[in-house]
Amino acid sequence: MNETATKTSTAPSSAAAVGAEAPPTKAASTAITLIEAITQALAYEMRHDDSVVVLGEDVGVNGGVFRATAGLSQTFGTERVLDTPLDETTIAGLTVGMASQGMKPVAEAQFDGFMYPMVDFIVCHAARMRYRTRGRLSCPMVLRVPWGGGIRAPEHHSEANEAIFTNVPGLRVVLPSSPARAYGLLLAAIRDPDPVIFMEPKRIYRQYKEIVADDGEALPLDVCYVLRDGSDVTLVTWGAQVKETLEAADKLAGEGISAEVIDVATLKPLDFATIAESVAKTGRCVIVHEAAKTAGFGAEIAARLAEESMFDLVSPVERVTGYDTHIPLFRLEMKYLPSVDKIVAAAKRALAAG
């Protein structure tokens, strides 16, 4: 799926930087950050569907640790924006219970590393609800998760754990990379009848602005987005790494190399057809993600290419990833994450190999 977007200033507004408490309500197109797009989508859906509720630690009075829910409690009341105890297991249990009884809860895990106490309810109940009841019940819940590194946060606050959840049948795993995709995909996730893990790349929460119309138009789930056409090499990525990958494509273009850039967006279920079509054209593929290399989701894409696109490949698949360590603190954090230079080098290796 091809997509174009209009960007404005690369710096967040001063109001966004301090977390101004007012959920956007403009129907007209407005330049907003990714975090503002999250707030805007939540507010839109809460205005139009009384079954949507928001819950989590500090999401009400304080508007969330990243201010994603700022102003929602004042607008919709404390019965629909619920401040919970500091207990992720309870949050997950409440969310599954609400969803099974006809509500559409949107829960927040304050950080990616705080998801692990939620796994029992997510894996053993939310993901199995439709299967277990033979379709009599579904679990229309969304778990919002600030995801990934790059903000100089301590342990448990900078993890890229998406591959854990892509391995669970019954879950959708969505990872937007821009304000427009965050808005449209979150609306689609809330409207989906089954559980969605919605991972938000916090490194780019306020990194740049994009024109987003608050029109309630959802984007399709389960599709990849072709952000840039190319003919020499396919660059596949998701989340915050889309920015570096596009910059790498620009750098390659300056050297006469045409790179196609694909934002996976929905990791599970994977739109492999879009990736395969691109690789059939370019013959080469570089997969970029910040999670550890071993058993990262890039390995699944590489395996599918080996199974289904072997004869289209003219060189081995390259992966640019994090290392098989926990993300290091502070000084080494950006060294751990994929960089423009690492992506460019991988693309050149792929070109040199075939």
From TrEMBL:
MF annotations from Gene Ontology: branched-chain 2-oxo acid dehydrogenase activity
Cofactor: thiamine diphosphate
Domain of life per record: Bacteria
Enzyme class: oxidoreductase
Keywords: Oxidoreductase, Thiamine pyrophosphate
Renumbered residue ranges of the record's region Disordered: 1-22
Domain Transketolase-like pyrimidine-binding: residue ranges: 32-207
Keyword Flavoprotein: no
A Pfam family matched in the record: Transket_pyr
Gene Ontology biological process terms, A to Z: branched-chain amino acid catabolic process; response to nutrient
EC number(s) from the headed UniProt entry: 1.2.4.4
Function statement: The branched-chain alpha-keto dehydrogenase complex catalyzes the overall conversion of alpha-keto acids to acyl-CoA and CO(2). It contains multiple copies of three enzymatic components: branched-chain alpha-keto acid decarboxylase (E1), lipoamide acyltransferase (E2) and lipoamide dehydrogenase (E3).
Record's protein name: 2-oxoisovalerate dehydrogenase subunit beta
Organism: Luteimonas gilva
